[in-house]
Amino acid sequence: MDERGDVSRRAELIRPFIVMDVVARAKELEAEGRDIVHFEIGDPDFPTPDVIVRAAEDAMSHGDTGYTQSLGLPDLRDAITAHMRSTYGVTVSAESIIVTQGTSPAMLLLFGSLLDPGDEVVMPDPCYPAYPNYVTFLGGVPVPVRVRAEDGFRFRIDEVERAITPRTRAIMVNSPSNPTGGVLGPRDLEALASIAERHNIWLASDEIYHGLQFDEPSHTILEFTDRAFVLNGFSKAYAMTGWRLGYLIAPPQFVRPAEKIQQNFFLCANHFVQVAGTTALLHAQDDVARMREAYDERRKYLVPALRGLGLDVVTEPLGAFYVFADARSWGDDSVALAGRMLEETGVAVAPGVDFGPGGEGFLRFSYATSLERLREGVARLEAWSRARQ
Ligand SMILES: Cc1ncc(COP(=O)(O)O)c(C=O)c1O
């Protein structure tokens, strides 16, 4: 028999999220009195809009503090249906929606109801690290397809097609993207939908950064095909990361399996948070627009500023709140570079390799922080890079 350690192999296979080490070190330095500029965190600096906070307060004081149906409150599921219709013109039945405690648990419901051991999921490299970790944890196999700065970090469709095998179950899509800020346009989504239909596989579309796309409206994958799952949540566009609210829209045959996972593992999402989420969808769209405009202003400052420092931002990021900058002129090892930057300048960034081998040599700058702090960080990096020359 194989020698086994105490810790399960499944847990051993999960890769650490190095940016959390950067966060921990930044906090240590702050505790020692250093001023740290935070470019590393994907957490909106805006407070949750008042109208949402008040809805939660009211709900709590009216006793909305118990369990709800596992699938979620009917009012919230109806509001999601109405949102899908008014935003994208698609009809989604409330019966296909499962409300979750954030987008993250929705990934467990999705991959848990879709994958058997050995099943493959095609995904971009670089991508949000939870995707390969969830797939691996469930016995599946992540199949990375490189996305490149010169393509705006969009898939090359022929490369996606070549990555499909008889074991492929799904293609993961994330537009706007973390970490790249890249966006897939309607033609990309249509081509991916056609691959899914031809190969009888599924698209898994993480739409958590919808609402934070700058020049064009976002498109849901459901405009292009029914062979798709949608993951979404309130963390980013509504500045609600700590509230923990999201949802999965699943094809009919997956709703009951996902519901059974939810019933056993999570029971339901928080009651008063679901009430607040309903208000967010119905009454906070102006707040979303206000925050989007602020992010856009920051983006328009930060991209040229980073280019001015000698970092390469080949194509403009079009959504989310990240710039994925090629930092190879400063160093090839993104973890070492991020570490040195933090120690020597007090500027914290996420190393690109955290998001997959395709991210090595890059640094992710989040602009979920004020323009004033962005300017301070850029000034420090400017002085630092001048001193190194
Ligand atoms: C692409 C992407 N998906 C999902 C999540 C997690 O979202 P939630 O807070 O809804 O669990 C994040 C958080 O950074 C993200 O960037």
Protein model, in words:
- The protein is α/β, with parallel strands linked by helices and 389 residues long.
- The chain has helices at residues 9-12, 18-31, 50-61, 74-88, 103-114, 130-137, 157-163, 186-199, 252-265, 271-283, 285-308, 334-345, 371-388, and strands spanning 37-38, 97-100, 120-125, 141-146, 168-174, 202-206, 228-233, 246-249, 322-326, 347-348, 350-351, 362-366.
- The strands form 3 sheets. The chain has a 7-stranded mixed sheet, sandwiched between helices. Strands 9-12-11 form a 3-stranded antiparallel sheet.
- Helix 4 packs parallel to helix 10 (271-283) and helix 5 (103-114) runs parallel beside helix 6.
- The longest helix has 24 residues, at 285-308.
- Bound molecules: pyridoxal-5'-phosphate.
- The site of pyridoxal-5'-phosphate (PLP) has 13 residues, from helix 5.
